[in-house]
C-alpha cells in the first residue's frame, strides 16, 4: 500500500503522540510529529526523546485476566502497539507489574519512529489550533502556555487543572542493605528476579510516628497566586495523604502486608517503604508512591529518616507541576474530535485519562479514527465492553461533565456482565468475565476495522 498524500499532524511526542504516529504510519499515512523539546523544555522532561517517562517507570499491572490496565496492555499488543512492544523489550523485574528502563524505552521508541519512512519529526512549537488539515493534539499535562491559551480561547472555558507530583529516585549503592531487603509483596512473580523486584525499608511504630511528624512539619512548595491544588487521587503527594490522617500512609504506599523482613523474620514491621528498580542496570530505585511537593532541602532530611536510607543519595528529588486537561465530555465528540474544530482530535492525558498506558491507548485510537476519516471510511464504534472503549466512552460522554476528573482505566467503567454476583467474593469471577468479553469484542473490532480498510 502506498503512502497517502495527505499528512496527519501530531502535536506532542509523548506517550499518546508517539503511539498515534506509529499507528498512522503503519497504516500507510504520512505523519509529522511536532515536538517542541528539546528546543523548548519543560520542568519535568530531561531529554528530547519521544515517549520520555517523567513520573514513574511503571506501566502498572500486566495481569490481563484480573486487572483493567493489564487488559489494556493486552488490547494494545493485539493492535500492534509500539509502546507495548518497547515496554516488553526493555522491561525490568517488578513482580506482577510491567516496569521499564525508562531511558532505554524512550530511546527505543525514538529510534523506531525516526527510522520509519513515513514519519517526520519537527522541532517547532505549535502555538495555535490550525483551521486546516488533519491534526491530533497530544500535548499531555505540560501543554505549552501559548497552546493552552489557544485551547482556552477556542473552547470558551477555563482549562481544568490538578497538580501532579513526582517521586524521588535513589542511587542503589547508597541504600543500607543490612537494614533493607529485596522482596516483592507476597513474593509475587514467576522468577526470582520478579519475586525480589523491590527493596523494602521497615519502620517501627515510633519511627513511623516520627516520620509522619516530620512530613507534616516540612516546608512545602508554594502555589502561585490564583492556583488551587486539586489533586488526582491516584497521584497524591505523601504530605497530602498524611494530612488526611496519620494512618493513611500505613494503609497506602507504606502498608506492611505481604512482606517479611529477611533480617528479622520474626518481627512484623509497623510500616514499610518500598523502592522499585528504575533502570536495567539496577543502579537507580524510585520510592514507590512517594510523590511529593516538599522543598528539596526538606526532602533529603525527611527521606533520610527512613531506615536503610540514612545515607541515601538522590539522583532526582520529587517535584510538582500543573497538569491541564479538557472537560472532554462537553468539548469532544464520540470520535475524539473537538466539536468546534472537527479537523482536530485530542488524545492522551489532555483528554482526562490518567496514566502512561491510558494516554498511549487514546493516541492509538485517535490515530485509527483519523486514518479512517482521511480515507473516507467510518470505523464501527469501539465496544464499551473493551478497556479501550470504556475509556473513550468515559471521556466523550460517559462521565458527568460537572464533576469530570482524570481517570485511570478500571472495571467500574465497564458495562456489567449479566448473571454475576457483585461484592468482593465474586470479584475474581467477575473480572475474568470482563476480560474474556473484552478480548473477544476487541478482536472482533480489530477484524471489522481491517476489513473496512481493505
From TrEMBL:
<keyword id="KW-0520">NAD</keyword>
<dbReference type="GO" id="GO:0002098">
    <property type="term" value="P:tRNA wobble uridine modification"/>
</dbReference>
<keyword id="KW-0489">Methyltransferase</keyword>
<keyword id="KW-0285">Flavoprotein</keyword>
<protein>
    <recommendedName>
        <fullName>Methylenetetrahydrofolate--tRNA-(uracil-5-)-methyltransferase TrmFO</fullName>
        <ecNumber>2.1.1.74</ecNumber>
    </recommendedName>
</protein>
<keyword id="KW-0521">NADP</keyword>
<feature type="binding site">
    <location>
        <begin position="12"/>
        <end position="17"/>
    </location>
    <ligand>
        <name>FAD</name>
    </ligand>
</feature>
<keyword id="KW-0819">tRNA processing</keyword>
<dbReference type="GO" id="GO:0030488">
    <property type="term" value="P:tRNA methylation"/>
</dbReference>
<feature type="domain" description="MnmG N-terminal">
    <location>
        <begin position="9"/>
        <end position="377"/>
    </location>
</feature>
<comment type="similarity">
    <text>Belongs to the MnmG family. TrmFO subfamily.</text>
</comment>
<dbReference type="InterPro" id="IPR036188">
    <property type="entry name" value="FAD/NAD-bd_sf"/>
</dbReference>
<keyword id="KW-0808">Transferase</keyword>
<dbReference type="Pfam" id="PF01134">
    <property type="entry name" value="GIDA"/>
</dbReference>
<comment type="function">
    <text>Catalyzes the folate-dependent formation of 5-methyl-uridine at position 54 (M-5-U54) in all tRNAs.</text>
</comment>
<keyword id="KW-0963">Cytoplasm</keyword>
<keyword id="KW-0274">FAD</keyword>
<dbReference type="GO" id="GO:0005829">
    <property type="term" value="C:cytosol"/>
</dbReference>
<dbReference type="InterPro" id="IPR040131">
    <property type="entry name" value="MnmG_N"/>
</dbReference>
<dbReference type="GO" id="GO:0047151">
    <property type="term" value="F:tRNA (uracil(54)-C5)-methyltransferase activity, 5,10-methylenetetrahydrofolate-dependent"/>
</dbReference>
<dbReference type="GO" id="GO:0050660">
    <property type="term" value="F:flavin adenine dinucleotide binding"/>
</dbReference>
<dbReference type="InterPro" id="IPR004417">
    <property type="entry name" value="TrmFO"/>
</dbReference>
<dbReference type="InterPro" id="IPR002218">
    <property type="entry name" value="MnmG-rel"/>
</dbReference>
Amino acid at each position: 500500500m502506498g503512502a497517502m498524500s495527505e499528512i496527519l499532524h501530531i502535536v506532542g511526542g509523548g506517550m499518546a503522540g508517539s503511539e498515534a504516529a506509529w499507528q498512522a504510519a503503519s497504516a500507510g499515512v504520512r505523519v509529522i510529529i511536532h515536538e517542541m523539546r528539546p528546543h523548548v523544555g519543560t520542568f519535568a522532561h530531561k531529554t528530547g526523546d519521544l515517549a520520555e517517562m517523567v513520573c514513574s517507570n511503571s506501566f502498572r499491572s500486566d495481569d490481563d485476566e484480573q486487572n483493567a490496565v493489564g487488559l489494556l496492555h493486552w488490547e494494545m499488543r493485539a493492535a500492534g502497539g509500539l509502546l507495548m512492544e518497547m515496554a516488553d523489550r526493555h522491561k525490568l523485574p517488578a513482580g506482577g507489574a510491567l516496569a521499564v528502563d525508562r531511558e532505554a524505552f524512550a530511546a527505543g521508541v525514538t529510534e523506531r519512529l525516526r527510522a520509519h519512512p513515513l514519519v517526520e519529526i519537527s522541532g517547532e512549537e505549535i502555538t495555535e489550533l490550525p483551521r486546516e488539515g488533519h491534526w491530533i493534539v497530544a500535548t499531555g499535562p505540560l501543554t505549552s502556555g501559548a497552546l493552552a491559551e489557544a485551547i482556552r480561547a477556542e473552547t470558551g472555558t477555563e482549562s481544568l487543572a490538578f497538580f501532579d507530583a513526582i517521586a524521588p529516585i535513589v542511587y542503589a549503592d547508597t541504600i543500607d542493605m543490612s537494614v533493607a531487603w529485596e522482596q516483592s509483596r507476597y513474593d509475587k512473580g514467576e522468577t526470582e528476579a520478579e519475586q525480589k523486584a523491590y527493596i523494602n525499608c521497615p519502620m517501627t511504630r515510633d519511627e513511623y510516628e516520627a516520620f509522619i511528624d516530620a512530613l507534616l512539619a516540612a516546608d512545602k512548595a508554594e502555589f502561585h497566586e490564583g492556583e488551587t491544588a486539586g489533586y488526582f487521587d491516584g497521584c497524591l503527594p505523601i504530605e497530602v495523604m498524611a494530612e488526611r490522617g496519620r494512618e493513611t500512609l500505613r494503609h497506602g504506599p507504606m502498608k506492611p502486608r505481604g512482606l517479611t523482613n529477611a533480617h528479622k523474620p520474626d518481627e512484623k514491621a509497623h510500616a514499610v517503604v518500598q523502592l522499585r528498580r528504575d533502570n536495567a542496570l539496577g543502579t537507580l530505585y524510585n520510592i514507590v508512591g512517594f510523590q511529593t511537593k516538599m522543598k528539596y532541602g526538606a526532602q533529603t532530611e525527611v527521606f533520610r529518616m527512613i531506615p536503610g536510607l540514612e545515607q541515601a543519595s538522590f539522583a532526582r528529588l520529587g517535584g510538582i507541576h500543573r497538569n491541564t486537561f479538557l472537560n472532554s465530555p462537553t468539548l469532544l465528540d464520540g470520535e475524539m474530535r473537538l466539536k468546534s474544530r472537527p479537523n482536530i482530535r485530542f488524545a492522551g492525558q489532555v483528554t482526562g485519562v490518567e496514566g502512561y498506558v491510558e494516554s498511549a491507548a487514546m493516541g492509538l485510537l485517535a490515530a485509527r479514527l483519523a486514518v479512517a476519516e482521511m480515507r473516507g471510511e467510518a470505523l464501527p464504534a469501539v465496544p464499551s465492553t473493551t478497556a479501550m472503549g470504556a475509556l473513550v466512552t468515559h471521556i466523550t460522554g460517559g462521565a458527568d461533565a460537572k464533576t469530570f476528573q482524570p481517570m485511570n482505566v478500571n472495571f467500574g467503567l465497564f458495562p456489567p456482565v449479566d448473571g454475576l454476583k457483585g461484592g468482593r467474593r465474586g470479584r475474581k469471577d467477575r473480572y475474568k468475565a470482563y476480560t474474556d468479553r473484552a478480548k473477544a469484542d476487541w478482536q472482533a473490532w480489530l477484524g471489522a476495522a481491517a476489513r473496512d480498510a481493505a
